[in-house]
Batch of 2 targets.
Target 1
Amino acid sequence: MPYEAWKDNEYIEQLLAELRANGTNVIVGSFDKLINWGRSNSIWPLTFATSCCGIEFVSLGAARYDMARFGWEVARASPRQADFMMVAGTIVHRMAPVMRRLYDQLAEPKYVIACGGCAISGGPFRKSYHVVKGIDEIVPVDVYCPGCPPRPEAMIYSIMQLSRKMKVERFFGGVNRQEKIKDFLANHPEESLGY
Amino acid sequence: MYDLSVITKWIHELLMSFMPGWLATTIECVAIGVALLLVYALLALFYIYFERKVCAAFQCRLGPNRVGPMGLLQSFADMFKMLIKELITLKNIDKFLFALAPYLVIIASMLSFAVLPWGKGLQIIDFNIGIFFLIAVSSIGVLGILLAGWSSNNKFTLIGALRSGAQMVSYELSIGLSVLTMVAFAGTMSVTGIVEAQENLWFIFSGHVPAIIAFVIYLIAGTAETNRGPFDLPEAESELTAGYHTEYSGMHFGFFYLAEYLNLFIVSGVATLLFFGGWMPLHIPGWEGFNQVMDYIPSIVWFVGKAIAISFIIIWFKWSFPRLRIDQLLALEWKYLLPINLFNLVLMVLVIVYGLHF
Amino acid sequence: MANIQEKIAKLFPEATFEDGEILLVNIPDAKWHQLAKCLKEDAELHFDHLVTIVGMDWTDKLGCVYYLNSTKHNTSLSVKVTTDDREKPMIHSVHDVWKIATTFEREVYDFFGIIFINNPDMRRLFLSIDWKGYPLRKDYDMNPEVNPVSLENERQEDTTVSYVEKEDGTIEKKVVEIFAPEDFVVNIGPQHPATHGVLRFRTAVDGETIKKIDFYSGYIHRGIEKICEGLTYPQTLHFMDRMDYFSGQQYHHGLCLAIEKALGIEVSRRAHVIRVMMDELSRIASHCLFLGTFCMDLGATTMLFYTLRVREQILDIMEKTCGARMTFNYGCIGGVMQDLHPDFVKDVKELLAVLPKNIKEYNELFIGNVIAKGRLEKVGVLSREDAISYGVTGPSGRASGWACDVRKTHPYSIYGELDFEEVVYTEGDSMARTKLRIAEIEQSAKILEQLIDNIPEGEYCVKVPKIVKLPAGHYFQLVEGCRGAFGVYIESDGGTSPLRLKLAPPCLPLANVVDHLTQGSKIADLITIGGSLDYIVPDIDR
């Protein structure tokens, strides 16, 4: 797909501009390129679904939408082996510590996609006494994928955006994303998680 | 048929001509090691791609097709990613054994590579108890799995490891007996000897009934040995999340992942060796022209091609069959396969004694 | 109904009666347990199926409404038990009469704080152990600071409490052990590939054998019932799609029927036919997905792709008419939202043409497979008595020989005039549950075949007042979802939003029965049994 077709995400363009402004060493830069090529083409999801969006995620794996084309079909049940977490469905108070724990168990570099209205803001259940109003209160979110539930096409698009985001990061030195995660984690401490 | 040992001999003599013997041997060992590692990695990556494509075909899907032409680079991308993934250090585990386990699994499959007959004259070591060595080293793998499960300090991995232990110990018997059946038929334990014995006709044809029974049993037990469906209980995803390697991340998990596919290759390779003539081309007695045409295909292509064809069958039933339960798994081995196998051994002996084979 | 009333009045002079579609008996708490025993055991009454317990807060008093069905006489009855004490409300438990009551009572305790005397397990069901307040009470403090989002791991206890009545009438609090200290407890869930969502089983195992399972739900409890109390009736409808997301059409149907019954609206024939066709289409889609995910749990991944093929075809039909793939929000008060798409008839006929071929393929690939037979047959056998006592309805109940299809027992909409069979198997094992669903796909196809050429002309939605106000009173409606009987209870005070909207999902009893079915079987059987029961977790938790 030509790059021009993608020029619709200001956030990534901004990241890219930041990267270009800093300049980089040739060897490190080409290593980065290779690694980022690998990382952005091999995004393994964690099997994690709480409600309706999870079923659309199943459809995404099925023959019509076939996420295997992009190499995303290796869904790992163990968070240690997955690259990103598609939070598909509502997160409620009781689930919040569990989800945070799953996030902490993911191996770096790790990403989160908030999939569906509930994960983004609480969606139709925002008024409830037991629903988290957006998972970005708990974990840093990389891509938001709206919908109730999002269509599989929308999910494909959101994972492709994640893939692009990986491409403009730097693995060696100035990893602009991981610093943000550190900030986030400092603001949302995990000291009370019992492990 | 071109004898590849000519090349290896030439390299050896070339090295010997200008350096002392010990140095030449060392250099050869290192070169072989590097070549082995390379083949090992490439083969695993190919197998990962192969399985993903094959299962996609069974499931009316396309499979990887975006990364590189026809998705050929997909598993390379996976490997690069895996290499840079974080190795999570866990609290309250046996750190040494935890780190050792994936290497044990990898070493076991690597040692098995040493005796596989890749082509005519292309074999790392060829000694008179090759098959025996193969069976011995391939069973080291279970140790790695047991250690992985035990040292992770996790209940799922422990259950996975115990299942794996029970499974391996049981199915090792079937493998051993079916191999023994074929060794009895060949009359030698040497890998080259077995291959040479199949020059005119592959054992699966010449040994007819007992050989076919042995092949079916070997295929079932071999699948069980590699922890693949329908015998993937140690890593039954829907039951034990990821089984014995639940707690492994990054390249450590990568080793388990690669070893799974390499074991698949080894099992298929041994099946090729025992039943389908190793690197021997397909010869039909009496059809001289046909046999000569077959001889033109290089021996290494024959071996790898046959192994992949058998892997295809194993992949086929992984994606079609549901998983067995642990008690059914053990019942299958102890109540059915083992008695059949013992009977088959007797049958094979009768066939040999009375010369009932072709 | 009159003789039931006479009979109860004779035995229990304290009881008072309210007439309605379903007879309501008011009984003081002291006599309730006795009445319950009598209702269940008396051969003439024989109310052996407890449909649901509706907890209620009437501000001046708290209480429960019990909905009962008789499987023998096909009669229904409701019983109301109240208490004035708001500080420490107590009602006698009926867990020894109907087994499902244990869990239903826990739910009422969780939402209203009503303690059930003698119930062996008085823990919260959905909310965490340290939750403050009882959310469905009218005076519950909704301030998020009272119960903030916590990242702390939930407190875990291996014991539960029980309030036991002694012989002299005093109540004693007792601590009951769930797991012994020496038990090897494996935690399965909430994030686990085989729990079909975020259900959690704490499983005590002895090697590979399961000793006991304690199920925890509430990991997707979204408080739909409470939110609905603040919404108008048309607004409440869209939540029906988000509980059991495969039975969205049926649940919509149920709530619409209840509201229409209250308003006295007669829906046009065309709307009836459209609703029934949509119900049956989603039933086929749901059973297809069941078959796929179930086989995937057992390790036969390829089946999933073959079954999803049919499901995608149905979703296409739905999408054309309803405009969405999953949360359709298609049924509305008075009919349906939009008229059928012009392609509808053609598409459904295409679907009906490919179904038999697909079913044959499923049977060949999976049901006939020797490994599948070994895994499913004689695994998780549920007897008919237990199915009724545990309230296991739907395909799982019918596989145990209990003819519990609401479409046949209490026909609604136009199901009474349709020609279809209620498939009932008697084996009660996982294989029967699986095969029954395939047979139900065939029956649904049969219904569709009858209707597809006979869609009458007419309006798809009748005129409904702009502001929907239900007359004061209570209304109950049962419909057949994809997984069992779905009950809607509405209590109205005459306003625009319900005083209480209770949704009685079929999946809670299904998840509850897992412990009973798995005892003594292997860990792998837990996956088989859980999969074959086919519960949907958001439906349990609401």
Target 2
Amino acid sequence: MTVFVIRRLFQSILTLFVTSLLVFFAVFAVGNPIDVLIDPGADQIEFERAVRALGLDRSIWEQYFIFLENALQGDVGRSFVFNTPALELILQRFPATLELALTAMLLANLVGIPLGLYAGLKPESVAGRSIMAGSILGFSLPGFWVKVTVIMVFAVELGWFPAGGRGETATFLGITSSLFTIDGLSHIALPAISLSLFTMALVIRLTRSGVRETLPMDYIKFARAKGLRESRVISVHVLKNIMIPIVTVMGLEFGGAVAFTVITETIFSWPGMGKLLIDSINFLDRPVVVAYIMLVAMMFIGINLLVDLVYAVLDPRVRLSDSGSNNT
Amino acid sequence: MFSTPDFSDNLMMRKPTLSVEGLSTWFHTKAGIIKAVNGVSFDVARGEVLGLVGESGSGKTVTGFSIMGLVDHPGKIREGRILFNGTNLVGLPAEELRQLRGTRIAMIFQDPMMTLNPVLRIDTQMIEAIRAHKVMTYGEARSLARDALGKVGIPSPDERLAAYPHQFSGGMRQRVAIAIALLHKPDLIIADEPTTALDVTIQAQILFEVQKLCRETGTALIWITHDLSVVAAIADHICVMYAGRVVEKGMIDDVLDSPSHPYTEGLIGSIPGHNRPGTPLQQIPGVMPSLLTLPSGCGFRRRCRYADAICKTEPEVVNIPARKGQRARCWHPLSDEASS
């Protein structure tokens, strides 16, 4: 397993290198940041000074190698717009996004798995059918429409929740989050619920189909023949067998939720990273965009590694190293 | 054997552990009602082995699951009684049935590759079976599980407890399943073709061990199989099933030596060992009819060489006078002369 992790880390470095190359040149190809950043009335001398100050007078390869050299020392550059370190800028916004994504994923699982289990155990029942019909809505309604509608109904018409923004935060066990205050919870409710709907629908369908596949298996019947209580048959024998696809989807969805909550954050004016990314792309703020994408790539690599490790815990037949270790 | 002088002892001996009376288990599907088990009756006494024989789809397995109370939707026990130590299992509350399962009645399944949960360790699967019925600490249950593995001939059971099912061979897995079935010293074990998926040497070992364990502990055993040679080796009594009905039953030697139902005769004739080398193998013509489109009267009549007009009405169960306890559901039970 150690061998597996080490090899994975080497692969990750390669992945990050290629990612940096692609992003750096892609942003370069989009346009010249100077055109956006500089006052149109500036004269030639000011223009050239600005270009030199940002290092844009050098060739693209030169710029890339300077970036690479600095990045290896942990410095991914300063924002053109804010003139602060890009990483710092992103990390300031990170907790808000993380708490939104985590809450949404937690909701998706806490609601999705029980509903999926019920629909799988009682597929013919009215409730079971309704859950499945609801899940179709969950992943086919366009996200932005759901979010705007949710604001209209629950914030504007009913006035139960605020329409946007992040509420008060409090610090508990060294973590600062809006989850620890009533005001914060009321602010996070609408964005988190609307962000979780798609994943929840996926989890419901995965759980249900997993249950339908697992229930007729001999080992479930054998577990019942042993005289186990139905609750143990379901929660241990069935559930552990269907966790692998759910964990896979959760990993990808969580990464997506952290990296690309642009729509949710924009609609609910949530001060997270997604909003920062869109602004930075508009201003061609290359260091921020590159740093952001690198961070997201690292996060996905981390999540995928974690998912693979969880596989091995869930299913003993999964072997993590393909080297000659014979630990059967 | 029925002339034992001590009459009361004889009564005790013959009091059946399990008595199935007129059991019908039907599946209500969209295509129609499938009468998988249709009026089946038999008894199994303490320490006795009953062979339940028939081809695929004859209702043997559903009979087993009916006794366990594990018939899946859309199947339902429609009528009949399953008396287990005097208690009728049909209509028993789910919780009481659960408490009997695994403790008093255990089941061994056909495919050992599929009976153990692939993602749970052997000790987990054994200990949960113990603790579902007995209040016991984890440690106590674990040592009980270890002893059980040792008893079915698994070497170094202490280490094997921590293994996962995929680290065992098929024969070893079936031994684990048997160990689980024996954990609570049940009064009745239903073994559903437990040796079919195993190779012959392992099959013989397992047959021998299960038989020994039943003799030692007085456990009644129902051995479900399509293999007459296995039944001949292990069973005291035999029930031959065809299309959801018991067509013949009796003492094993009587039935195998002189079958009285044409289907039993056909089954015995199909055993390759019965033929002289070089002659074509005998077979029963045709296939078993779909349970949805059973012919009226005797279910076997379209494949039966003795069938005539009267077979279109349901045959009665007749006693075979020459041999005590042998019965057949047939209009034309074979006499000794006809079958020889």
